[in-house]
Amino acid sequence: MTRAYNFNAGPGPIPTPVLEKAKQEMFNFEQSGAAVMELSHRSSLYEKIHFQALKQLRDILSVPEEFDILFLQGGATLQFSMTAQNFLEEDKKAGFVLTGSWSEKAKKEAEAFGETVVLASSKDSNYAAIPEVDLASVEESLSYVHLTSNNTIFGTQWKELPAKGNHPVIVDMSSDILSKQINWKNVDLAYAGSQKNAGMAGVTLVFIRKSFMEQANTSLPPSISYAQHASKDSLYHTPPTGAIYITKLVTDWILDMGGLAEIEKRAEAKAKMLYDTIDQSEGFYTGHAEPEARSLMNVTFRLRSEKLEEQFLQEAANAGYMGLNGHRSVGGCRASIYNAVPLEHVEALRDMMIAFKNKHK
Ligand code: PMP
After folding, report:
1. Is the residue at 2 inside a domain?
2. Any idea what the CATH number is for the domain that residue 249 is in?
3. Coil, strand, or helix at residue 171?
4. Is residue 11 assigned to a domain?
5. Which residues of this UniProt protein bind L-glutamate (predicted)?
6. Measuring CA to CA, which of 31, 112, 174, 337 is 20 to 30 A from 348?
7. How far, in Å, CA of 101 to CA of 183, rounded?
């Protein structure tokens, strides 16, 4: 079977063993004579998948018992406003650390429900850096602080989340969830769309500290209340059963691979391979992110001219590479190397980049 060299930023590749398993079970899941997507979400067969996925996510990410894990819909984008609806109080503000377009969008969506304030921003450097922040020194009375752990478009990432100050902390982890362990001490709510490291598009993973959830606005429609979804184990309404099934298979795959320790090692090796290629290219390729802010998930780079970039992207596309163009808002090139991208595909990309350089330098 031919699998593309898939460097898409999301939806991205899904591990081949996951797709194979889904294919094998597609028409007859556990002798039921039906596909998972054809089962009732109230059936015991489906419930087994649902609760196993929750349990394996908890195990893999060492999620403490003080947190609930939820399966919601509406993508990370709905979380931008749902967090504000639940937690932004009338007499307080939500504090944003701006590290890219997604944090800007999160702030904008929250503004429909209350006031926001920028605590720090790296916009001046065209988001090539992660700003310094000391959350303990924020004196303003905030309902919460919002961070983006990995900036998919600009290719930067917090190496470690900042230590928590006096305010609850909400983190968008859409593009680095399941790539490394999380220090839960510094987080009260984390959310992530599934379509990068956690499966196919359609389910949003939410990790929420129960004591924080209790502080939420209680006059909301139940469908946008975290507490309502938590009280029904994310079965308040029909969940995206097919997407949750794929997420469950992804957690099986992570466990088979040796858990997050192994995943993290592979992520570091893959990213190093591409950053070394950029750094050793004598300026032929230049990285967008400052070295200390470089993302292990999205490697952003430019070539000498837009014309050369176009040529690079065209040659790459002709050779079967998918998704190497930078986000339409910034241009250039971007290789997203999520968990399901095999090391061999990154090696192939490295070799292609070196060959292209040797031809055009
Ligand atoms: N946050 C980040 C960091 C993202 O990368 C994305 C999607 N690329 C989103 C939010 C938006 O996610 P969705 O399209 O699932 O709403």
Report:
1. no
2. 3.40.640.10
3. strand
4. no
5. 42
6. 174
7. 24
- End-of-domain residue from the set 203, 221, 256: 256
d(CA 166, CA 266): 35
Q: Where are the alpha helices (DSSP H) in the chain?
A: 16-25, 44-60, 75-87, 101-110, 210-213, 226-231, 241-257, 259-279, 306-318, 343-360
User: pTM for this structure?
Assistant: 0.98
Domain check: are 233 and 302 in the same one?
Answer: no
Name the pLDDT band for 1 (thresholds 50, 70, 90): low
pLDDT tens digits, residue range 209-236?
Answer: 999 999 999 999 999 999 999 999 999 9
Q: Is 132 left (phi over 0), alpha (psi -120 to 50) or beta?
A: beta
**Count H helices, E strands: the chain?**
10, 14
Q: Which residue, of 236, 256, 276, is where some domain finishes?
A: 256
Ligand 1 atom with the shortest distance to the CA of 76: 16
Q: Which two tokens stand for residue 222?
A: 């139940």
172 in a known ligand binding site: yes
Q: Tell me the per-residue pLDDT of 285-320, one tens digit each, with 9 for 90 and over.
A: 999 999 999 999 999 999 999 999 999 999 999 999
217 vs 225: CA distance, rounded Å: 8
ipTM: 0.99
Pocket of ligand 1 (CB under 6 A): 10, 75-77, 102, 148, 152, 172, 174-175, 193
Angle at 295 between CA 319 and CA 143, to 5 degrees: 135
For 146-161, the pLDDT digits (tens) are 999 999 999 999 999 9
Kindly give the distance from the C-alpha atom of residue 79 to the centroid of ligand 1, in angstroms, as a whole number.
10
| Count of structural domains within the chain | 2
Question: Bridge-partner residues for 145, per DSSP?
Answer: 95, 169
DSSP string, 123-156: GGGTT-S-----GGG--S-EEEEEEESEETTTTE
Please report the pLDDT score of residue 329 as a whole number. 79
Residues 324, 333 contacting (CB under 8 angstroms): yes
